[in-house]
């Protein structure tokens, strides 16, 4: 299976999707996925999935740089409780910071 496959989205549709995923990090529940100054901008989506009677699953899927993706990370925390933005996004942030750490 090839690593990359075209899905047939128009450039306009792809731009709308990318901007929506960026907005999640800038304005929405994914604020904990911001890497900070000196790092590329990120984009992604938080999630929480109920698993009664156990605690909820929390997840965050994101990528960076948002305008020219180089790395995609999925953080899934089984039965961790809490939401993806508060539990999984900070783990994503630290993984991305480690990957994009400026060389000294």
* Broad shape: globular
Count of helices?
A: 2
Helix/strand-derived category reads: alpha+beta
Query: SSE order, as H and E?
Result: HEEEH
Lateral arrangement of strands in the main beta sheet? 1-2-3
**Low-confidence spans:** none
Instruction: Classify the beta-strand content into a percent band.
Output: 25-35%
- What level of helicity do the residues show? 25-40%
Which CATH class of the domain at 31-100 applies here? Answer: Alpha Beta
Annotated CATH architecture of the domain at 31-100: 2-Layer Sandwich
Q: Provide the gyration radius in Å.
A: 15 Å
Give the termini distance in whole angstroms. 38 Å
- β-strand number: 3
Largest sheet: 3 strands, antiparallel
Query: What is the mean predicted local confidence, pLDDT?
Result: 94
What is the CATH topology classification name of the domain at 31-100? Answer: Beta-Lactamase
For the structure shown, list the relevant keywords.
globular; alpha+beta; three-stranded antiparallel beta sheet; Beta-Lactamase
Description of the molecule:
With 104 residues, the chain is of the alpha+beta class. The protein has a domain at 31-100: Beta-Lactamase (2-Layer Sandwich), CATH 3.30.450. 33% of the residues lie in helices and 26% in strands. A three-stranded antiparallel sheet has the order 1-2-3. A hairpin with a 2-residue loop joins strand 1 and strand 2 (54-64). It is globular. The N and C termini lie far apart (38 Å).
Topology:
Elements: H1 11-27, E1 43-51, E2 54-64, E3 71-77, H2 84-100
Antiparallel strand pairs: 1-2, 2-3
């Amino acid at each position: 299976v090839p690593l990359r496959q075209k899905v047939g989205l128009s450039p306009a549709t792809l731009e709308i999707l990318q901007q929506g995923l960026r907005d999640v990090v800038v304005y929405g529940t994914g604020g904990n996925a911001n890497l900070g100054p000196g790092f590329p901008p990120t984009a992604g989506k938080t999630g929480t999935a109920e698993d009664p009677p156990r605690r909820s699953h929390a997840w965050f899927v994101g990528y960076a740089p948002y305008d020219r993706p180089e790395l995609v990370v999925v953080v899934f925390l089984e039965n961790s409780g809490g939401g993806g933005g508060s539990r999984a996004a900070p783990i994503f942030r630290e993984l991305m910071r480690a990957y994009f750490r400026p060389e000294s």
